[in-house]
Amino acid sequence: LKKFTSTGTTENQYNNAGWSKWTQKDSRSLTRMLKEDRTASSKFIIDKFQTWNPNRFSRSTIYRRLKRLGLVRRALRKSVIIRAQNMKKRRRWAKERLRWKIADWHNHVFSDEMSVQIGKDKRVYVWRTSDEKDRPHLVPKKPRSKNISVMVWGSITSKGKGILLPVDGNINSQKYCQLLQDGLLPVLDWYFPDGDGVFVQDNAICHTSTETREWLEQRHIKASSWPPQSPDLNIIENIWRLMKLELQKYVEKINSRQELLEYLQTIWRSISLGKIEELYRTLPARMRAVRVSKGTMTRF
């Protein structure tokens, strides 16, 4: 009753004084300050801005202005530079499949290796807007140090997951063919007993070697062609990303390579068929995205 008597309404009243004092000059000053040190923490930026502008704005006002300017802390993104000739190959490959329906992809078995490294270095965050993610000066300069590492190979189909296999040491053609023997053949037998499965792999040297091609031909396994520099078109890459994000929950508990493998196997088993089907449904959009981007890296 007291609020209604004094203000004429029961709604909460907000003080906009801080906003009214903010000027375009303040926005430019704050943006310039961030660009001078992209890795600075929000506390450091706000303290510095208040030092330059004493008693003008509260910390919450400055933080809201950062968000309103589109400047938020994001992890540094790895840059992928695609060669001009490979852009043409990507466009050609996608164009051939531009009219494919989701069902046309259902017999494709997507595979790849994944390397996981757990080290002391943390992810580096920088201040940037959403359209600055590929700026050269916002790309990490040094690789993160390694502590515990493991490589695994796996495959997915529209009907379910394949087998996640560890890879010991460097991978060559002989070792790769053994991985296919242990991991690909059972998947083709389980999900494509009629022999209509199409194997998808990238253009790594051990994948395209004479020994690997002969191994596939001898077993009458049809392998799809693949454009170079195209991790964004292989949907298993999205599975790897999900697994690495989930693995972050257990990093502090992992003290050996064997423990790392066990956690990866647990996460692999938890991936649902629904998630895999969702990724298969993105394939037509991926083909269109390559065409729109003229062969450059897509958002996928």
**How far is it from the N-terminal to the C-terminal residue, by CA?**
56 Å
Shape: elongated
Low-confidence stretches: none
Q: Mind describing the biggest β-sheet?
A: 6 strands, mixed
Strand content: 5-15%
- What's the average pLDDT? 85
The level of helicity is 40-55%
Structural class: alpha/beta
Q: What Rg is obtained from the alpha carbons, in whole angstroms?
A: 25 Å
Count of DSSP strands: 8
What's the total helix number?
13
What is the H/E order?
Answer: HHHHHEHEEEEEHEHHEHHHH
How does this model look, in words?
There is one protein chain. By secondary structure, the protein is an alpha/beta fold. Helix content is 45%, strand content 13%. It has helices at 2-7, 17-21, 24-36, 42-52, 59-68, 84-96, 173-191, 205-208, 210-218, 236-247, 257-270, 273-280, 283-292, and strands at residues 72-75, 108-118, 125-128, 148-157, 160-161, 165-167, 198-200, 222-223. Strands 2, 4, 5, 6, 7 and 8 form a 6-stranded mixed sheet that branches. It is elongated and about 85 Å long. The chain starts with a helix and ends in an 8-residue tail after the last helix. The mean pLDDT is 85.
Q: How do the strands and helices of this protein lay out in sequence?
A:
Layout (H helix, E strand, L loop, with lengths): L1 H6 L9 H5 L2 H13 L5 H11 L6 H10 L3 E4 L8 H13 L11 E11 L6 E4 L19 E10 L2 E2 L3 E3 L5 H19 L6 E3 L4 H4 L1 H9 L3 E2 L12 H12 L9 H14 L2 H8 L2 H10 L8
Parallel strand pairs: 2-7, 7-8
Antiparallel strand pairs: 1-3, 2-4, 4-5, 4-6
